[in-house]
Amino acid sequence: MKLIGLKKEDKRVSVQFYGCQLRCGYCTHLKQPRTEHELQEVLDLIADPKVEEVYIGGAEPTVQKKELLELLRRLKRMNRRVTLKTNGHDPQFLRDSLGLADMYVLEIKCPLDDLDCMATLTGLSRERAEKYASSLKHSMEVLRGAKVRVWIRVIPGYVTLDKVERLGDQIAGTATEVYLIQFLSVPENDAPFDGIDTPSPAEGEMVAMARRLLEFVPNVYVRGRDFKSDFRAGRQ
Fold first, then answer.
1. pLDDT averaged over the chain?
2. Which terminus of the chain has fewer Cβ atoms in its 10 Å neighbourhood, N or C?
3. Residue pLDDT, tens place only, 96-153
4. Looking at residue 51, which CATH number applies to its domain?
């Protein structure tokens, strides 16, 4: 399998797959070099009895469907707790994976009906962005009933309070929790984009978004450079 990262930290192993269907202009992972690994090499690292959790992400793991599905099946037999992060581009794969992951993480860029925003942030043509938004909607339907965390990367000018509210309505019933991530707060994940080169927006603006999202999901977490806030519906 082709990876951009394989790391063990205490009780957790992170497996980062190479490749992605999207071309987000701020993504640092697209420029990371790939390395070749045998499945058994990855499993040997995870076989350490201290390891309890495996995080699978990327770039985008569903690009390598065959390898990913086999890894998930083997991890299930090893009784490891698995989190799978995906862009939701492949709803059929997610259907095939049900029961093999304990937590799904969907990163959603914009409201699904905002195709101009979706095209700009994904680097896709408007036509391809429309197809992606349709696939993402289907993926959310597939994952209803599973444990789903939605990540929203809050890029100023593209993710606003009004758009967060629209997105909240679209993920209601699927997302069990939302993470609002301040843009550029994690340098290894984000590169400057469209003139934005410092961590933003401010904490207060993100907290306002979180409070709005509580109308649609029960748990919201705000994460930024030097700040974090947790919100629960009915208890803030």
1. 96
2. C
3. 999 999 999 999 999 999 999 999 999 999 999 999 999 999 999 999 999 999 999 9
4. 3.20.20.70
Structural domain boundaries enclosing 20: 2-232
Give a three-class secondary structure readout of the chain. CEEEEEEEECCEEEEEECCCCCCCCCECHHHCCCEECCHHHHHHHHCCCCCCEEEEEECCHHHCHHHHHHHHHHHHHHCCEEEEEECCCCHHHHHHHCCCCCEEEEECCCCCCCHHHHHHHHCCCHHHHHHHHHHHHHHHHHCCCCCEEEEEEECCCCCCHHHHHHHHHHHCCCCCEEEEEEECCCCCCECCECCECCCECCHHHHHHHHHHHCCCCCEEEEEECCEEEEEECCEC
Write the pLDDT tens digit of every residue in 34-54.
999 999 999 999 999 999 999
- 235 pLDDT above the threshold of 90: no
Task: Look at the block and give the residue holding tokens 């978004």.
Answer: 209
The residues that bridge with 150 in the sheet, in sequence order, are 106, 178
Sort strands 227-232 and 219-224 into parallel, antiparallel or unpaired.
Answer: antiparallel
For the chain, how many structural domains are there in total? 1
pTM here is 0.95
